[in-house]
Amino acid sequence: MTDYSGLGAIRSLDFVIILCDDLEKMRDFYANILDFELEFESPGQNAGFRVGTLYLSLRPRGRIYDGSEIDRDSASIQLSFRVPPADVDIAYGTLKSKGVEIIEEPTNQDWHHRTLFFKDPENNILEIYADIHPREASLYPSKVHEIKKL
Prior knowledge:
about 150 residues, 2,3-Dihydroxybiphenyl 1,2-Dioxygenase, domain 1, 8 strands, globular
């Protein structure tokens, strides 16, 4: 019988992050050549486009989701898979038992996601995430990746 919890709860791919050598050139390509509508931009840090139900984000290569530097050649893409909140922790247990390299254990993020980051065999970044209520993020804040108000 198939287990529909943890990793079995993944039903779609709805968030892709392309890690870029030239963020501005890539942004222009997706905005001006493919004519994708720019939904969000933080110059020099990231650009985001809505493509149907998929969110496509561009970020400089050599940086991970929180802006920390990593080996420049370590990843080309980040794929994010959404699951129900409890399944983030179940997936963590499964991945850990299979010897998968975990980047960050399940964490409530300040942007209202519970996340789990890990690597595939080619060092690409994979994420299992769940939308969580803002109250959960504020009751149990990670303080690791706080969003700063300007």
